[in-house]
Amino acid sequence: MEYLGYGLSVLIGVSLGLIGGGGSILTVPVLVYVMGVSPVLSTAYSLFIVGLTALIGSVEYGRKKLLDYKTALIFGIPSIAAVYSTRKFLVPLIPDPVFHIGNFAMTKNLFVMLLFAVLMVAASVSMIRDKKKCDDCEPKEKKYNLPLIFVEGLLVGTLTGLVGAGGGFLIIPALVLLAGLPMKQAVGTSLLIIGVKSLIGFLGDLGHQPIDWKFLLTFSAFAVVGIFIGTQLARRVSGDKLKPAFGWFVLVMGIYILIKEIFF
Fold it and tell me: Residue ranges per domain, the chain?
């Protein structure tokens, strides 16, 4: 199972390199179900793995001039503040169990996995339905909806801080719809935002979680190999074709986690 987990970590990097998101969608389930890491600790590990991998991947997109630094700044600042605050202050305050209903106890681990699965299903819908943008068509004029981008940054930072996700599956629709970025530029910008936000969010876990650095760095190294593969494939694969296909995969994964956690 360990070798399977490391193999899947390469797929995590490939996903990030191709569509600027989806890495954390895979990371938490792989860590929990394949590598045997607890759900709460997996959310911390996910932030580091996805953050480091995405930041390295953003360098390649930057070289191709597929990064919008202004949008990254507007979105990133509130998102970074929210994810750090969530990991540092909010997550440790969540009680375990979260609540009781009769004989049923909603544990902290179960709460995290259910919230993660619900976000996966919601994100998959946006990926499947988004058919308006193409890879190479530039917007006629960029119109920044600054208040909405700022609020979206706060919301994504809080949600991804709770479930340990990079948030690319939420960031990219915001960049395309609110900032008017073409798909490939949205991918590169998303990677930069994810990288900085996730690594700073991980800092909020230090002191709260026991970190196995040898395992974490090994897993991350395989993911970094994957993102180099993904960025090369991105030159040949249309994001518009890949995104809905990945959306269906995310939908199936989300439903699987919901069924597994609720009934088994």
Answer: 43-263
